[in-house]
From TrEMBL:
PANTHER family hit by this protein: TESTICULAR SOLUBLE ADENYLYL CYCLASE (PTHR16305), TRANSCRIPTIONAL ACTIVATOR DOMAIN (PTHR16305:SF35)
Name of the protein described by the UniProt record: AAA family ATPase
Record keywords, A-Z: ATP-binding, Nucleotide-binding
GO molecular function, one term: ATP binding
InterPro entries registered for this protein in UniProt: AAA_16 (IPR041664), P-loop_NTPase (IPR027417), Sig_transdc_resp-reg_C-effctor (IPR016032), TPR-like_helical_dom_sf (IPR011990), Tscrpt_reg_LuxR_C (IPR000792), WH-like_DNA-bd_sf (IPR036388)
Amino acid sequence: MATGLLERAPEMAGLRAAARDAREGRGRIVLVHGEAGIGKSSLVEALRADPPAGSRVLVGACDAMSTPRTLGPLRDLAPDVGDALRTALRGGDREEVLGALQDELDAHPGTVVVLEDVHWADEATLDVIRFLGRRIDRVPAALVLTYRDELDRGHPLGTLLGDLGHGERVERLALERLSVGAVETLTDGRHIPVDRVFELTRGNPYFVSEIIASADAESVPPTVVDAVLGRLRRLDARVQDDLEQLAIVPSAVDGALLTALVPGGPGALRAAEEAGLLSVRPEGAQFRHELTRRAIVDGLPASRRIELEARALAALLDAGVDDAARIAHHAVEAGDVDAIVEWAPRAAAEAVASGAHRQAVAHLRSALEHADRFPPDRLVEIVERYAIESYTIGATTEASDRQVETIALRRRLGDPVALGASLRWQSRFDWLTGRRAGAEAAAAEASAVLAEAGDRTMLAFALSNEAQLALLVHDLDRARDLSAKAIAIARETGDAGVLSHALNNHGTAIAQLGDDAGLAELAEAAEIAMAVDDVENASRAYVNLIWVSLDEYRLDRAKELLPIALEAAERSEFIAIAAYHRVEQSRLELARAHWDAALATVDVSVDLPHARCAAMTVAGLVHLRRGDDGADEALAEAQAIADRIGEFQRRGPVGIARVEQALLRGDLDTAGSLASELYAEAIERRAHGLDMELAYLLGRAGRPVAVPAADRHPFALQARGDPRASAALWRELGCPYHEARALAESPDESDLLESLTILDRIGAEPLARQVRADLRARGVRSIPRGPSVGTRSNPEGLTDRQVDVLRLLVEGLTNAEIAGRLVVSVRTVDSHVAAVLGKLGVATRQEAARVAEERGILDVEAGDSAR
């Protein structure tokens, strides 16, 4: 059989070029992706075997564990790095690891760090990748990531790949299947029918190698499991036992563990190595392909697997291995309750320290399946930590439900300070799940309990929590009073977290009253929290600072802050807060009439009621302003959520969107009635920004109201009836739709024509139709027809980019492959594919391809589509 890599010369050249660039101080990211068995590991191994001169290659792998090891692939690098990084990895503190890793790479220019199978990476590892990715142009190293293409929607790696972006410092290497010619080369001299091998494998290199190794293509079942087991059963029974034992360990097996698990040590594995199943080195052994290991495990009877898991667990404990995640994994798989009770909470604590909150939740869930084994004082800590970690990753309903158990336990244990603190958390969780009444009740009890207990720091926290609840219903006076009390106590006691929390609420309250001093307090709240690494409170401050900036249309400030805020939230896996930042990003794109970007950014699948309400409002407005289908459904859902929550901060924006919808339909009565009702409430609640937008919309509906002359909000100027001045301000702020809408209200025909030019350019068809009708009513004859050619050529109304996506979809490319070809994020492609299917009225990609061919959609030249 031929040896070496076939049909991989360009990809190997790309890796070697990245290594040379790293040696010269030019950092690079290389993304090696493809289906399972396509040869990602073989490519990496070839680079490690023959690196460019002056380079070193460090390889770590993510494990297919039920709960991945925290920083697992980084820990694999420990034997080959300096003491500082090795020590940091042993401790697991995220910030120490990040600093030590950067120092290690700076000290060794030309390092190639390969992290394999990052689709299985834990959150802490993804944080490290994100950290390096944002600094790669300043790091003399190449970061090579291998992963499988097909990621589920919402997979954390998909978000990370979008964050890494594209450009000259990021290269994507998509590995393709082998050609018939390559398969023929591999089978040369083996007397195996090439056509049969290709038929069974479709050119997947791993499947090809397995069938060739079995030496009989006709008798090999068409599944890799059977192919692997066929090779395994040809070996001696003792070797089979050893391989089954090693297969239970979802990572490389180091020398000490190998000796413990395999009685004969490395020498006993010679036959397995010669059969091509294992790779044996002085530092240990590893299956040559993860699919081989998994195939062996999948073929084990449950009883045998439990036995092997128990042996692996015992070997780790006997060897004194202090890797809680690995021990907890084998304990769960073996069903060893004593070990689970001891090690799962420890693994969770390590995960929390490293910022791997999803892994923490998984470990704590394992522990709580045996809640009866913990004493009450220990159980309450585990239950509450599980609730807090669930909240952190966005599972707020689970957090709220579990916190009820915490409260019950706290009441029985009789510690009032601990009870008050837990009630404060309960209030937070209830609010996030839309349970306003429960949030208020828990908040009031927390303050009462803590006031009696005499813990002033926790009392300040409880008061600030009550202030936040008042703020969220625009009871601004109460919010200011309560947060001011909390600030005074926090400054007295010196608690930075409480001070940040209270300043956040106080600053937001006065900012909503139009006082810029509130913005300064919000910035101070973020700085105080970041100084003590309190990412949650810093992120809350950023959420409010950006939200208020967007309300005031200070878009440049929001744009500047969003990347900082999102990185902080994502690095620490505060999923709920990151969801709000993505909604803020979509609001920014909406304000700038970047329709596709707004839809690509907004996460309409988010399961947090407040964030989902805002997300559906943005999605509804995009569809409404472009004239797409889907506006009614999105706004109806947003309204239902807002009504359930009952807070004006949600009902106001949804109501405004519905007023705009009525105006675009020419229904002035509905628009006026709804706007009048909302405006009265906005004035009562002093909801600045919302009140001015409603005042403007009332004028559009023929019910003008007086607006203070000193108010400089953009909508205040527009409500006062100066279209040109309003348009100039909107242009300065970077809001073309609002600029066009202002010009459309001018009595001057030239302003209407300018408005029409903008609306056609950004694809705002409903308002453009109204402007054209107005021009015709005024007797204007030379009215631009707009983008009608594309509409006639492409009656489905696909955008240029959607036509590009459809063309690649017809070619059979996956979303990840389309993203690589078009140099966009997978999330953007997901959005485009959904839009294409919706506009074509089909449910599947195959149906879309059929419809495209039947209607000749792909015969349209680029640039001829509707928008």
